[in-house]
Design a protein that fits this description.
Helix content: over 70%
CATH class: Mainly Alpha
Strand content: under 5%
Structural class: mainly alpha
Number of helices: 16
CATH topology: Amino acid/polyamine transporter I
Order of helices and strands: HHHHHHHHHHHHHHHH
Number of strands: 0
Number of domains: 1
C-alpha cells in the first residue's frame, strides 16, 4: 500500500509492526526495572495474580481505544477522540491534562532517571552542569530525528525497543534455571487495601500505550492498524511483565526487599555476575531514552491537532515544507521537557500525573460509548468491541475504583488544575470572539 498524505498534510507511514513496537516501548519503561520488587514486597508470590487482575482492567481500556481509534483517524490520539465525541471544551481539558499533567512531567522524570543511571557508572553525570549539557544534546537529537519525519522516529523507537527487550528476555530465559520453587509458594492472601495499592502501582506500570496513538493521523489503514497494533503490543507487554515477575520472585524470594531499588539488576548479577548489573543499569537508561523518544514523536501531534482546531496558538499547526511533520510543535515540546528536566520543578507537580491519566482514560471510554450512537457512513468498516457495554463499564468501574485510592491532596490538586484550565479556555474564547468582532 502506497503512502498517502492526509487532509492535515501529514504522511501515512506507520503500520501494525511500528505501532505494536511503539506501544511495547511506551509501556515497558523505567518502572519495570523496580516494579517486581514493589509487587513482591507487598504481595509475595500472590503478585502474579495482581498482574492478571490489572491486565483485565487495562484490556478494557485498550479495547475502547482500539474501537474509537478505528473510527477517529485524525491526529491527536486521546484529545482527538474526546473532541470528536464531546466538542472543543472537553477536548481542551483532555489536551492539557495529557500534555502537561502526564507527558511533560513524565518525560522530564525519565530524563533524570537516564542521568541517574549513567551517574552510577560515570559519577561526573551527577554534576548539575554536565546534566544540563547532556539533557540539551540528548533532547536536541530526539527533536532532530522527529522533525525529519514520523518514519525516522518510528525507526529509532523500533531499534530502542529491541535493544531494551534483549536484556529483559535474557533474564527471563536464563533466570528460570535459578528459580527456587519455595520462593513461589503462596503463603498468605494480602488484604484488600494492599491489593488495591499494588493494583494502582501496576496500573501505571502499564500506562503509556496511548502516547503513540497521538500519531493516529500518520497510520496506514488506521481501521486495521490501531486495533491490531494495540492487541499485539498489549499481549507482548503482559507476557513479558508476568515472566519477569516470576523470575524475580523465584530467584530472590524474601530477599527481594534488599534489592528494592534495582531487583532486575540483582537477578542479572546472580546470572552473569557484576557485569549483569551494569548491563541492566545501561538498559534502564536506554529504556527511559526510548520512552522520551516515543513521547517526543507522538505528543507534539496532540498540540498540532489542538492548533488546527483553534485551541492552541496557530504556529503550532505549521507543517515542515520538506519533511511534512509538525516541526514547530515537536521543537517546542522538546524544549519544554528540557526546561523541566533541568529545573526539577516538575517534582512538585508530579502528583498530578497519576490522576491526570486516569481522567484521560475515563474520558476516552465515555467518548467511545458516545460515538457508538453516531451513524456511520455506508460501507465504513470499523472495529467494535464485542459484548455491548460490558467491557467499557469494566473500564469505567476500574478507573473510578483507582481514583478513590488517590489522596485528598491529589484530588484537590487535580480539581484546581482543571479549574485553571477552564478559566483559561473561557478567557481565550472571549478574547477570540472580541477579536472577530473588531475584525468585522
Amino acid at each position: 500500500m502506497h503512502n498517502t498524505t492526509t487532509d492535515e498534510g501529514l504522511k501515512r507511514v506507520v503500520g501494525v509492526p511500528g505501532l505494536a513496537l511503539a506501544i511495547i516501548n511506551g509501556i515497558i519503561g523505567a518502572g519495570i526495572f523496580a516494579l517486581p520488587a514493589i509487587v513482591g514486597i507487598a504481595m509475595g508470590a500472590f503478585g502474579l495474580f495482581s498482574y492478571i487482575f490489572c491486565s483485565i482492567m487495562l484490556a478494557a481500556i485498550m479495547l475502547c481505544y482500539a474501537e474509537i481509534g478505528s473510527r477517529v483517524t485524525t491526529s491527536g490520539g486521546s484529545y482527538a477522540y474526546v473532541e470528536a465525541a464531546f466538542g472543543n471544551f472537553a477536548g481542551y481539558i483532555i489536551n492539557w491534562l495529557y500534555f502537561f499533567g502526564w507527558s511533560i512531567l513524565g518525560s522530564a522524570a525519565l530524563m533524570n532517571v537516564i542521568a541517574d543511571s549513567i551517574a552510577i557508572i560515570f559519577p561526573s553525570f551527577a554534576n548539575p552542569l554536565v546534566r544540563v549539557v547532556f539533557f540539551f544534546v540528548l533532547i536536541g537529537f530526539m527533536i532532530l530525528i522527529n522533525v525529519r519525519g514520523a518514519k525516522q522516529g518510528i525507526v529509532l523507537v523500533k531499534a530502542i525497543t529491541i535493544i531494551k527487550l534483549l536484556p529483559l528476555l535474557g533474564i527471563i530465559i536464563f533466570g528460570f534455571s535459578k528459580i527456587k520453587a519455595v520462593n513461589l509458594h503462596l503463603e498468605h492472601i494480602p488484604s484488600l487495601k494492599t491489593f488495591g495499592d499494588t493494583a494502582l502501582i501496576l496500573f501505571f506500570a502499564f500506562a503509556g500505550f496511548e502516547t503513540t496513538l497521538g500519531v493516529s493521523g500518520e497510520f496506514k489503514n488506521p481501521k486495521r492498524t490501531v486495533p491490531l497494533g494495540i492487541f499485539v503490543g498489549g499481549i507482548v507487554v503482559l507476557i513479558v511483565y508476568m515472566l519477569l515477575q516470576t523470575v524475580t520472585q523465584g530467584v530472590l524470594g524474601t530477599a527481594i526487599a534488599t534489592f528494592k531499588d534495582a531487583p532486575l539488576a540483582a537477578v542479572a548479577e546472580k546470572i552473569v555476575g557484576h557485569a549483569g548489573a551494569t548491563i541492566l543499569l545501561i538498559t534502564a537508561a536506554i529504556s527511559c531514552f526510548g520512552g522520551v523518544s516515543a513521547d517526543i514523536m507522538a505528543t507534539p501531534r496532540v498540540l498540532f491537532a489542538g492548533a488546527n482546531d483553534g485551541l492552541f496558538p496557530k504556529f503550532l499547526g505549521k507543517v515542515h515544507p520538506k519533511f511534512a511533520t509538525p516541526h514547530v510543535a515537536v521543537t517546542i515540546y522538546g524544549l519544554l521537557i528540557f526546561i523541566f528536566s533541568v529545573s526539577g520543578g516538575f517534582k512538585q507537580l508530579a502528583i498530578l500525573a497519576s490522576a491526570a491519566i486516569l481522567i484521560v482514560y475515563l474520558a476516552v471510554i465515555l467518548a467511545t460509548i458516545k460515538l457508538r450512537t453516531k451513524k456511520q457512513d455506508i460501507g465504513e468498516k470499523t472495529f467494535k468491541i464485542p459484548g455491548g457495554l460490558a467491557i467499557p463499564f469494566i473500564g469505567i468501574a476500574s478507573i473510578i475504583w483507582l481514583l478513590t485510592s488517590l489522596s485528598k491532596w491529589e484530588i484537590l490538586s487535580t480539581i484546581i488544575f482543571i479549574t485553571v484550565i477552564c478559566i483559561i479556555y473561557f478567557f481565550m474564547k472571549k478574547f477570540k470572539k472580541r477579536e472577530n468582532i473588531l475584525a468585522t
